[in-house]
Write a structure and sequence with these properties.
The structure is a single chain. By secondary structure, the chain is of the alpha/beta class. The chain has two domains: 241 residues, Aldehyde Dehydrogenase, Chain A, domain 1, CATH 3.40.605; 201 residues, Aldehyde Dehydrogenase, Chain A, domain 2 (3-Layer(aba) Sandwich). Helix content is 35%, strand content 18%. It has a seven-stranded mixed β-sheet with strand order 14-15-16-13-12-18-19, with helices on both faces. Strands 9-8-7-10-11 form a five-stranded parallel β-sheet, sandwiched between helices. The radius of gyration is 25 Å and the shape is globular.
Length: 521
């Protein structure tokens, strides 16, 4: 049923604790499974509005940092409790606004709860160290201090889990935040910001701005120039991440970057093929292939290539696709723009490639139907899953990320070749290998350049207490989740305390062993 204008909620920004009156161009957030359903209407802020939010965060941050870390942890716990109490409603909203199956949405919201549970404890574990001095009557200490104000920009494919990876540890560490969620998922962003604001955060510590990419970039640049932003976090494409990195670098800042991936999955000759098929199906086509950790290319040992491809093709052909409120492998793409971009990737299929199984590609329609489709494909932005065999170096399908249900397959003879193929495109986010040989597994883990690897599991999946992040074209080595993200949202301060009553000059006044001491045995 179509949504009438009177039914649609108009969202607002959250700046300094106040809901800013809607201003600027309004855009509709549309349910990608039912294009007649307008989830919310959102104003897109100007660059000046972004700067206003950064100014509010900068003003609020010192007071928040002065709150003892264990008390800040109690606020994080309250956020987690509120998310838990609203888990089903939030999950339904995620499914409605970006189209992932409800079961996946439940898992995404649970990731927020897990993140809060973990960082509650870190409020009592923001440990520094005491360090022995090389001179007497002197003590050395180290402390974690908040970096200040963080500007966080996140994507639509994980509209609540990934933001929590930035925001929760940043708040716990005593920082203030300006968050710009994807304009494709503003209702989820609004709901999460409302929950966090009701958990006890002082006004201005968390600020929410809805904006397009151009105004966000311009606003971020102006905020950096004014000294209002001390750290930038960005999740999105490698192209935009490079621009964000260049912008932050002008101000001698190192951003947190979680970018794209071309995540390899290697199937060894001794692999459990059914298990590998299951992992490839979930990793390659879960969330319609719209995860940063989605499997990009499967490299299969030549001895098992034909059998693996036969089983995998059958699994894909039998997979249920459609209405994301039902039990399906995947639902629609996030928006029509994502569907059209996905269709452009199909032009990369060359004469030396073979489309395995069904010959239908592109959008699922009445003229290009999908067997067993759940619902009416005309309602939303649905795409056929495509397996392309024969991928090799030099192909666009080898070198470039394909954000959608398109998966390449290639062969290898020796493990060294598989590792070379897995690394050759320059991305380094996630990876996986299926093998029953520990030597093979450890050799792959040692040789792969990705920041994350799995053995006998898919390329997708994260846990709140494990570092998440990539290298090369996938990021700058920064990590999210677990204690490792604290290195991004805090800065180390060293303190030396001399109580000798005289000036002691390190190295110059350090006691040393006598020069004539005989060390011979």
């Amino acid at each position: 049923m179509a949504t009438t204008s009177s039914d649609v909620r108009v969202l607002s920004h959250l700046i300094g604790g106040d809901r800013a009156a809607p201003a600027g161009d309004l855009i509709d957030s549309v349910n990608p499974a039912d294009r007649t359903d307008v989830v919310a209407r959102v104003p897109l802020a100007s660059a000046e509005t972004f700067v206003d939010a950064a100014r509010a965060a900068k003003a609020a941050q010192p007071g928040w940092a002065a709150v003892p870390a264990p008390v800040r942890g109690q606020v994080i716990a309250a956020i987690g409790q509120l998310v838990r109490s609203n888990k089903e409603a939030l999950s339904r909203l995620v499914t409605r606004e970006m189209g992932k199956p409800y079961a996946e949405s439940l898992g995404e919201v649970q990731e927020v709860i897990d993140t809060c549970d973990f960082f509650l404890g870190e409020g009592r574990r923001l440990y520094g160290q005491t360090v022995p001095s090389e001179v007497g009557d002197k003590q050395l200490f180290t402390f974690r201090r908040p970096v200040g104000t963080l500007a966080i920009v996140t994507a639509a494919n994980f509209p609540i889990a990934v933001p929590s990876w930035y925001i929760i540890p940043a708040l716990l560490a005593g920082n203030a935040v300006v968050w710009k969620p994807s304009e494709m998922t503003p209702a989820v962003g609004d709901a999460f910001a409302e929950i966090m604001s009701r958990a006890g955060l002082p006004h201005g510590v968390l600020n929410l701005v809805h904006a397009n990419g151009v105004n966000t970039y311009d606003g971020l640049g102006a905020a950096l120039e004014a000294g209002l932003v001390d750290k930038v976090g960005f999740t999105g494409s490698t192209e935009v991440g490079r621009a964000i990195s260049e912008l932050a670098g002008r101000f001698l800042q190192t951003p947190i970057l979680e970018l794209g991936g071309k995540n390899p999955l290697v199937v060894a000759a001794d692999a459990d093929l059914d298990l590998a098929v299951e992992g490839a199906l979930f990793g390659g086509f879960g969330t319609a292939g719209q995860r940063c950790t989605s499997t990009g290319t499967i490299w299969v040992h030549q001895d098992v290539h034909d059998e693996f491809l036969r089983r995998f093709t059958a699994a894909v052909e039998n997979a249920v696709i459609g209405d994301p409120t039902q039990d399906v492998l995947y639902g629609p793409l996030i928006a029509e723009a994502y569907l059209r971009r996905y269709e452009s990737y199909l032009d990369w299929i060359g004469d030396h490639h073979t489309v395995s199984g069904s010959t239908s590609t592109g959008q699922i329609t009445a003229d290009a139907p999908r067997k067993g489709f759940v619902g009416d494909p005309a309602d939303g932005f649905y795409a056929h899953p495509v397996i392309v065999d024969g991928v090799r170096p030099g192909d666009d399908l080898y070198a470039k990320e394909t954000f959608g249900p398109l998966l390449g397959v290639g062969t290898y003879q020796h493990l060294d070749e598989a590792i070379e193929l897995a690394n050759g495109h320059g991305y380094g986010l996630s990876s996986a290998i299926y093998t029953n040989d520990p030597k093979t597994a450890f050799a792959f883990a040692n040789g792969i350049s990705a920041g994350m690897t799995s053995v006998n599991n898919s390329t997708s999946g994260a846990e709140a207490h494990l570092p998440f992040g990539g290298n090369g074209l996938s990021g700058n080595g920064s990590r999210q989740s677990g204690i490792w993200v604290l290195d991004a949202v805090t800065r180390w301060q060293s303190l030396n305390w001399d109580y000798s009553g005289r000036l002691q000059k390190a190295q110059m006044d350090t006691a040393v062993l006598p020069a004539d001491l005989d060390f011979r045995l």
